[in-house]
Amino acid sequence: MTDDRTTTFETHRRHLAGIAYRMLGEIAAAEDVVQEAWLRWRRAEGEDIREPRAWLSAVTVRLALDALRSARARRESYVGPWLPEPLLPDDVRALAADAPAARAELASDLSLALLHVLERLSPEERAAFILHDAFDCDYRDIAATLEKSETACRKLVSRARERVRLDRPRHTASKDEHRELIARFSQATLASDTKSLMALFADDVVFYSDGGGRVRAALNPVRGADRVARLIVGLMRKLGGGVAPDVHTIELNGQFSLVLRQRDQVYSTVTADVANGRLTAIYVIRNPEKLGRVLSAISAPSSPGSSQSA
Predict the structure, then answer these.
(1) How far is the CA of 128 from the CAs of 72, 149, 204, 288, in angstroms?
(2) 157-195 tens-digit pLDDT
(3) For 62-75, what is each residue's pLDDT tens digit?
(4) Which DSSP symbol is given to 40?
(5) For residues 169-180, b (16+ Cβ closer than 10 Å) or e, as one string?
(6) Is residue 130 a contact partner of residue 52, using CB atoms and an 8 Å limit?
(7) Most buried of the four, 43, 98, 202, 283, by CB within 10 Å?
(8) Residue (of 201, 191, 165, 192) closest to 273 by Cα position
(9) Opening angle at CA 87, ends 81 and 91, nearest 5
(10) Residues 36/63, Cβ–Cβ less than 8 Å
(11) Where do the CATH 3.10.450.50 domains begin and end in the chain?
(12) Which CATH architecture fits 175-309?
């Protein structure tokens, strides 16, 4: 493998990782896809590849499609709701690093809300949507990548956009408003104050909890302010074991979030969507397999973007 070809691949690594994570919602799986793309790039030395970025993108998408189909089969037997692995600030910056200026807002949107909605698309819809709306690929390149006609790819993108528009939770708050509401939510949760929690929730708030069958979590989404408030208070009483947890604040997937830790173990991350001054969706990740990186981040001596709150 020549130095020039190695340099070419490294130039596009972040772009490929961005595609793979958006397709799969798992960092390790995305890294595996990028590594396999590297191996195929090595084996292709000597071939006349005129557009390396397009070639590598196509290979990455096809590998991610195969991985996603396999993951879908596993997730069908997953215990409870499946949520994407949370991203730390450095991850978000890396995966959004080469977003086209015209698409920067969407391309850098790696929120749990959007990724959760993308899970409901077919693999081909997800790939077409990500390539077109996040990475500004034209329909000719998408068609070549997915081995479909341009007309078929336009339909895939159109259907995906409509599904995202209908299913994506509302989010209209500024960063400061979002931060303030999450802080109030933290205080009400630690105080087991059902009334204050209900005042923070939209009437149709939805609570998702991903325990993966490894730890206690709600097996189905819970809807409605009263039900969600009572659930949270009940969970805190059971999870805390009578001892209040340490609550850290950190940015996950580009949003102000909470990390609950006890006895040097992270047992939950909490992220929420906000609209019209109320929490509209709450995402709680409890599966320990998804929390190792978060624990390392908040345990670091000078962890950027995180702090401890009372």
Answers:
(1) 17, 12, 31, 32
(2) 999 999 998 887 666 788 899 999 999 999 999 899 999
(3) 999 999 999 988 88
(4) H
(5) bebebeeeebbe
(6) no
(7) 283
(8) 201
(9) 155
(10) yes
(11) 175-309
(12) Roll (3.10)
Q: Which residue has the tokens 């604040």?
A: 249
Give Rg (Cα) of the chain: 20
User: Could you report the average pLDDT of every consecutive run of 10 residues in the chain (310 residues)?
Assistant: 84 93 94 96 86 94 95 87 91 70 50 90 95 91 96 97 83 85 94 95 96 89 97 79 78 91 81 93 93 82 49
Backbone φ and ψ of 301, nearest 5°: -55, -40
**Collapsed DSSP state (helix, strand, coil) of residue 39:** helix
For 272-300, letters b (16+ CB in 10 Å) and e give bbbeeebbbbbbbbbbeebbebbbebbee
3-state secondary structure at position 273: strand
Measured distance CA(170)–CA(168) in Å, rounded: 6
Q: According to DSSP H, which parts of the chain are helical?
A: 3-24, 27-43, 52-75, 89-95, 104-107, 112-118, 123-129, 139-146, 150-167, 175-190, 194-200, 225-240, 292-299
Q: How far apart are CA 254 and CA 234, in angstroms?
A: 29
Q: Which two tokens stand for residue 69?
A: 């189909």
- The C-alpha angle 284, 290, 292, rounded to 5 degrees, equals 115
The neighbour count for residue 37, using CB atoms within 10 Å, is 27
Which residue in 190, 278, 266 sits closest to 235, CA to CA? Answer: 190
| Antiparallel, parallel or unpaired: β 201-210 and 255-262 | unpaired
